[in-house]
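Long-time lurker. I teach an intro course on protein structure, and each term I like to show students one example going from raw sequence to a predicted 3D structure in C-alpha cell notation. This year I'd like something fresh instead of my usual example. Would anyone be willing to generate the C-alpha cells for the chain below so I can use it in lecture? Attribution to the forum is fine with me.
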Amino acid sequence: MSLRALLDDPGVARIFAALDGGGEDIRIAGGAVRDALLGRMPGEVDFATTALPDEITRRAVAASLRTVPTGIAHGTVTVIVDGRPFEVTTLRRDVDTDGRHAIVAFGRDWAEDALRRDFTINGLFLDRDGQVHDFTGGETDLKARRVRFIGEARQRIREDYLRILRFFRFFAAYAQGEPDGDALAAVIAERRGLERLSRERIRAEIMKLLVAPRAPEAARIMADAGLLGAVLAGVARPLHLARMTAIEAALGRAPDALLRLGALGLFVADNAERLRERLRLSNEETSRLHAMATRPPLTPSLSDQARKAALYRRGEAAFRDAALLAWADSGADANDAAWRDLVALPDTWTAPKFPLSGKDLAARGVAEGPAMGARLRDIEERWIAAGFPDRDWIERELGT
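-- Reply from a regular --
Happy to contribute to a lecture. Here you go:
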C-alpha cells in the first residue's frame, strides 16, 4: 500500500473529514505510516490529534460516527467507521514512568509526542495532504532497514521495559543486517527489567516476534545475549526455530506462532507446562504443545501401517504438528522428500471411524462398566493392527 492509497482508504478519509480542521490537527501516526512507506498493508490505522478526548468524541458524534472510550486516561478514543475501529489519541508527553506504565499529560506539540515514542520508525506522522512529518530520523532508518531507539536508548527502555522485547520484535519484522549496536547494548544492560513485566505482555510480544520474517535471527541474537532463556524460563533452541521456519517456507505454510514456539522451547512434552506458566498460555495451546512433543516421535522410517495408526490415534492436526516438530528436531533438509510425505499423510489418507460402540456390545449382552470399556479398547487395538478392516471383520471378532 502506498501513502496515497492509505489516504484514499474510505475509513481514513471519513476520520479526516470528521476530525481535521477547525483549530485542530489530526494525522495518521506510527505503524500505518511506516508500513505504507514500505509498501506493506497496515494491520491497523491509528491517529494522533491535537484535540482532547471530549472534542474527539463531540466531532465524531456530529459526523454520525460511534465512539468507544477505550483509553480516556491516556487520551485514546476509538472511533468506529462502518464497523471498523480507528484509535484516535491526543498528543501526549510523559509526566512519570515506572518501567511498566506512564502518567501522561496532553499537549499540542507534535515533536514532543514523537520524541516520547520507542523507535524512530514508529515516530512518523502523515497529514491529510500526504506530507510525512518526521521528527526522529525515522524515514532514514526505515530506508536503511534499521531499528533504532529514539534518543537515549537506556532511558527509553527504563520508561517501559517491554521495549526490550519490542526491539527484537521490530528487528525481526523490519531490519536487515545486524542489530543497531547502541540499541543492543542498551537492551542487554537493562535486561533485569524484564522481571517486572507481566506474563501477558511478554506473551503478546513473543507470539508476534515468532511470526516475523527474521524471527530465527532475532531469537539467535537474544540467546547469544543471554535474554532468551530468561524470557522463556528455560533453555531455548534457536536453531530448531530456524529449521521450522525453513520447513514452513518450503511447504508454503503460513507462519504458525505456536508451532514455532514448540520448536524453540520444547525438549520434552513436560516443557509445555513451563511455557504455559511463563507465557500464560491457554489450556488449548498447552494441550497442543503437549501433543506435538508426545513420544515416540514420528519419523519417515515408520511403516505405512504405523503412520496410519499414529494419524488415527492423534488426529489430523496433532499428527501434522508432531511430524513438523520431529522434522525440525531431526536436522533434515527443509526439502526432504521423505519428511514431506510423512507430513502430507493427512492430505492423502482419511482415518476411518471405529465401527463399533458400546451400544453394539450391549446388544450382544455385554454389561456396561469397566469390562465393556476394556473390551472396546482391545477390539479397537486389534482393528488398528489389522489395518482398519471393514465391519465384517468386527462381526467376525465379536463372533469369537
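Some talking points for your students: The mean pLDDT is 92. The domain at 1-144 is CATH 3.30.460.10 (Beta Polymerase; domain 2).
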